[in-house]
Amino acid sequence: MSMSMNSRKSKLAFQQAFLKRAGQNFVHVKHMMDALPNVGFYIKDINDRIVTLNARNCEISALKDEFDAIGKKSSDLFPETISRECLARDAMVRKTGKAVVGGVNYATVDRSPKPTIYSVFPLHDEAGNLIGTMCGFYYTEKADSSYIARTKLQPALEWLTQHTGENTSLEKLADLTHLSVTHFRRLFMETFKESPAKYALRLRLNHARELLETTDRTVANIALAAGFYDQSHFVKTFRSIYKITPTAYRRRHAPQIT
User: What angle do CA 170, 149, 161 make, to 5 degrees?
Assistant: First the structure.
């Protein structure tokens, strides 16, 4: 990323210049996508640099706001296993000029056990020149386990998903896969580019986010349900990852609580 992209002012200028090339209606598209609660969205330029992320994508990606990402590439923000597929599909759309509609992605940024359904479209300026790509995605309840099933880690991943609020030892997870602890840890790191403990933490935070979005349970109750030993530990961890407190996160999603 160039030196001219280090400040918030320069990032905003970069974004505004791109949106102007894409057409004035894209400013309204950006505002609309920010208002959608369950859909992730991004725009990238022809050099794979992020132009904008909507609020939901920032939450999923554990970014304070879009300015944490503007001017960067997915490979600057996420592990290689996550960014590889994203970069590949954007490159294909730029190369062919054709949209990819209804694609399925299993390697999600926040380690959700649910895959995402995505669509990527090419963006052109008024002269018809290709200037970037635009993607929208959402999680699906129809989780297809074929991606996980191809790995030896499947039993451990299913256990972690089904026992989100429990603390599980590395020995237990390795035993579920019939691998030694050393082999299990190495295979896990090679596959997900993070430790089993960090992966499990993401799952627990995903569970907590879902409870904050869909229930009126107290933060203390949610902390215990998600496997944190007390509310203080939960709040500190949640804030360190998502740059927002659980209470503020719930307030943001208040209209969804029934």
Answer: 50
DSSP 8-state code for residue 131: E
Q: Would you put residue 29 in left (φ > 0), alpha (ψ -120 to 50) or beta? A: alpha
Express each pLDDT in 176-207 by its tens digit. 998 899 989 988 887 777 889 988 998 899 89
Mean pLDDT score across all residues of the chain: 85
| Fold (CATH) for 146-256 | Arc Repressor Mutant, subunit A (1.10.10)
Burial class (CB in 10 A: 0-12, 13-18, 19+), 120: buried
Q: What is the homologous superfamily of the domain 3-139 according to CATH?
A: PAS domain (3.30.450.20)
Helix H or strand E encompassing 124? strand 116-124
Rounded Cα distance, 22 and 188, in Å: 42
pLDDT tens sequence across 101-153 = 988 887 777 777 677 889 999 999 989 999 999 999 988 865 555 555 556 88
Could you tell me the end-to-end alpha-carbon distance of the chain, in angstroms, rounded to an integer? 44
What is the rounded CA–CA span in Å between residue 174 and residue 156?
A: 7
Show me where the domains of the chain are located. 3-139, 146-256
Residue-wise over 74-88: b if at least 16 C-beta within 10 A, else e?
Answer: beebbeeebbeebbe
